[in-house]
Amino acid sequence: MIPSSVSFLLLFLSVFAPSALSDPRAQRAALLCTNRTVSSLSLRQVFVTNFVAAMDALTPLTTARQHGAVVKGSGNVTVYAMGECMKDLSQSDCNVCLAQCKTQLLSCLPFQKGTRGGRLFFDGCYLRYDDYNFFAESIGDQDTTVCGNSGSINGNSNNSVGASSSHIYKANALELVTNLSEVAPKNDGFLVGSVERKNVSVYGLAQCWEFVNGSVCKKCLADAATRISSCATQEGRALNAGCYLRYSAQKFYNNSTDVTISGNHGRRSLSKILVASAAAVALLLVVATVVFFIRKKIVTRRRERRQFGGFLDRVNKSRLNMPYEILEKATDYFNDANKLGQGGSGSVYKVWSLYGSNRLSEVVVPTLEGPFPAEEACRLLQIGLLCAQASAELRPSMSVVVKMVNQNHEIPQPTQPPFIHSGSSELSRSGLPGYNFQPGSNTQSSANTVTESLVEPR
Q1: Mean pLDDT over residues 391-400, rounded?
Q2: How far apart are CA 55 and CA 61, in angstroms?
């Protein structure tokens, strides 16, 4: 029992201790949406499809290397998308930050209005999409500066700078952002640092996006440093198309290789002692919690043995899991034809896939062909796909649905449901069926050809 308890304790500490110190910094700094929209309803459907595909294609890239850029579609409905995390974040924090960033970027209303471009700055990551190639862009018309008190932004005013020290703090902040903007382009486009003088500290971070480097990065950060110097507050952010610059009275970054310009060494030593003491207390609490739950589990097992006797051992030894060989035979060796769905919308995925290949009648159970003709069932399923479209504007009202069911209204062609990867459906190969679906019909209308390009940094 002792060895297993020790193993469990080590596993617990290795998994949960780092996560307790993580911070994805998923706080919104600014959301900037363009005023350009896709006016045509038919083109908007294509644009929405390309937008969903672009967001979906970004995930594996950012998961592998914390940055990525993709191009989806062609013509005037092409979608360019880019996502990147701050380089001091861990991979897990990066994934959390970008996941929340994708959700909030929908506030630009790409589905409802067909907004052609939007960018979202989080303190830990950055996400942007547009209808033109902006990947190497450094400065743009929508660049902005966000100034504010650290207490009002971070929800903690304990580290506020007093009025008597404000001029010292501003001088330190100006020195810091100047140094960061000059050194970061030479340091792979990223640098964190601090200035500590006369017991007044300021911390900062500068980063150029992966596709903005060299002289372009230097130009972007120089512009950011000039604009952020106008902030007369404890915290400032310069948010450019090609870079991000921030300073604060609180240390907000995770990188341990920060550059300290000057300061009080005694104060830093005291801070290190306090941090080490706090970490030791936290570790002690974690160990005590683990020991408590292990002991509780042991007591519970002993009580169960006394209560159930040999019956509990028989249940534990019984094989309730299905053998792998049976799964292979039941699914015809995991044939795609037996795939029932994907993700949380399995039924929608299955119907949409069959609809795209003119095999919607296969959804109908053969035993129901008498009282439930396949043609009637296919009509109802097509109406259901109309109600599950990604754009809420395209979904029919209930009164229109009733008319469609009673065959008093034409059934239009449905568009793709939300967040179903176009590559997983047969639509990309066979096109979309015509307006009034007839089982077995070969009538098809033209479909949007989605192209995909993965953009690599220079």
Answers
A1: 87
A2: 11
Average the pLDDT over each of 80-84, 105-109, 129-133, 420-424 and give the range with the smallest value. 420-424
**Longest Cα pair distance anywhere in the chain, in angstroms?**
88
Tell me how far apart the terminal alpha carbons of the chain are, to the nearest angstrom: 56
Give the angle 350-356-358 at the CA atoms, nearest 5°.
Answer: 100
**Per-residue tokens: 274:** 């306090």
Q: How many Å apart are CA 104 and CA 175, to the nearest integer?
A: 34
pLDDT at position 263 over 50: no
pLDDT of residue 9: 44
Judged by DSSP in three states, 55 sits in: helix
Indicate the pLDDT class of residue 33, thresholds 50, 70 and 90.
very high
Q: What pLDDT is stored for residue 259 in this prediction?
A: 58
Helix (H, G, I), strand (E, B) or coil at 457: coil
- 3-class SS letters over 107-141: HHCCCCCCECCEEEEECCEEEEEECCCCCCCCCCC
Q: What percent of the chain is predicted at pLDDT more than 70? A: 72
Identify the helix (H) or strand (E) that includes residue 330. Answer: helix 324-330
**How many residues comprise the chain?**
458
Domain 144-263 has CATH 3.10.129.10: no
- What is the mean predicted confidence (pLDDT) over 420-445? 42
Fold of the CATH domain 22-130: Killer Toxin P4; Chain A (3.30.430)
How many Cα atoms sit within 13 Å of 284 on the Cβ side? 6
DSSP conformational letter for 439: T
Taking the C-alpha atoms of residue 403 and residue 412, their distance in angstroms, rounded to an integer, is: 13
In the chain, count H helices and then E strands. Answer: 13, 14
- Cα separations (Å) of 442 from 134, 422, 432, 433? 41, 21, 10, 8
Same fold, 22-130 and 144-263: yes
**Angle at Cα 451 formed by Cα 446 and Cα 454, nearest 5°?**
170
- Residue 258: is its pLDDT beyond 50? yes
pLDDT tops 90 at residue 218: yes
Query: Domain boundaries in the chain?
Result: 22-130, 144-263, 268-312, 331-447
d(CA 386, CA 435): 12
Could you report the per-residue pLDDT of 109-152, keeping only the tens digit for each? Answer: 999 999 999 999 999 999 999 999 999 999 999 999 999 864 33
What's the Cα-to-Cα distance from 321 to each of 45, 314, 328, 333, rounded to whole Å? 45, 15, 14, 18
The residue type found at 253 is Y
